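Hey all, quick one. A colleague (J.T.) asked me to put the nicotinamide-adenine-dinucleotide job into the tracker so the inputs and the structure tokens live in one place instead of scattered across chat threads. No bug as far as I know, just bookkeeping. Sequence used:
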Amino acid sequence: MVKDQITKRIGIFGSTGSIGKQALEVIDANKDKFSVEILTAQSNEELLIKQALHFNPNIVVIGDEKKYSKVKEALSPKLIKVFTGEKALEDVAAMDTYDVMVAAIVGFAGLKPTIKAIENGKTIALANKETLVVAGDIIMKKAVEKRAPIIPVDSEHSAIFQCLVGETRNRIEKIILTASGGPFLGKKPNFLVNVKRDHALQHPNWNMGAKITVDSATLMNKGLEMIEARWLFNVKPEQVQVVIHPQSIIHSLIQFEDGSIKAQMGLPDMKLPIQYALAFPQRIANNFPRYDFKKPNTLTFEEPDTKTFRNLVLATDALFKGGNVPCVLNAANEIAVYAFLRNRIGFLDMTDLVERTMQHVPFVEQPSMEEYFESDGEARNFAASLIKL
Ligand code: NAD
Ligand code: MG
């Protein structure tokens, strides 16, 4: 088929992270289908150089300006263009030499380059859920206006997306996001109060970057994903539900108005949703391990413990209130998680910090992009002020 021959030019924003590295593995295994045009990283210049020498992109961006000359020197024999700084990330995202952005930067920092890519009609393979949490209404409108398809990489949303293929005319009754429950499933506050960074960084089913691993342990990740789902699939807040499924085999489910439920299943491996997003609408054969129904398996489902994992309550509140509240939740959470990772605050303090920040920042019902940036800054400043020195 002719379709198979097309090479998509990929820009990986956040190539040294967990998602970025796995995206490069997928590309390496499918060189006939994908080529690497752009690689970006914040500070891991060693890995960025190694990746660039292997994949030979046209452009590389290193965020940390102190590392620019080292990267430039290493890549100049290959004639790879090297840029640095936050602004460069946006300029490069706007270039017309690539087709698909893998949005794999972590946190709010991913927002501006992703907006630039949407404005320039790129296809977005979206891992950076924070983009939709912060400004989902504006982002989705822009994506439609600029005809920039957003294909989710987040495994739950990829599952829903896959279940929706061929269902465009059918009404969604409910989206059911599965959550592994993280490393502290079943634990109570008297245990969580003593949890330290290293313990929280051990996730039972997924190997991910530090921030999302902590978010999974506090269930904030699932809260962010509820907001992400609301915007991606254009549903009402009350149509999004979370169920704990510790085995992470069913990646999420969708219930249609006739009560029929579709689920997408498979072993937990982010390469699968990454590959699906890159190759969409095609599927590509691979030799990833398969789920085996012959082995003894039990798939279980339970209600989340929202009394213990209050982040889910805060995120649900943000989802229903809308406006700038999800943006404030996200900003406070980023400050909280990085403070926890530096052993500055305890595990349960993260939730308190987010809650107090949500109470502090004034409500804006329909923020402009500038107002989202203001709310983000205000929330960060306030949350940081709550952390004792
Ligand atoms: P990570 O921490 O492993 O990698 C983050 C990447 O972003 C790195 O390449 C880093 O250089 C870059 N980066 C960090 N700060 C930056 C900044 N200020 N400016 C520019 N670049 C910066 O993170 P990850 O686990 O790969 O997650 C990336 C995104 O994907 C997150 O939004 C996360 O929620 C989402 N996601 C990750 C997974 C997973 O399995 N890791 C699954 C679903 C969704
Ligand atoms: Mg997920």
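Adding what we noticed when we looked at it: Residues 14-20, 41-42, 44, 63, 104-106, 109, 127-130, 154, 206, 208-212, 270 surround nicotinamide-adenine-dinucleotide (ligand 1) (CB under 6 Å). Residues 157-267+289-321 form one domain.
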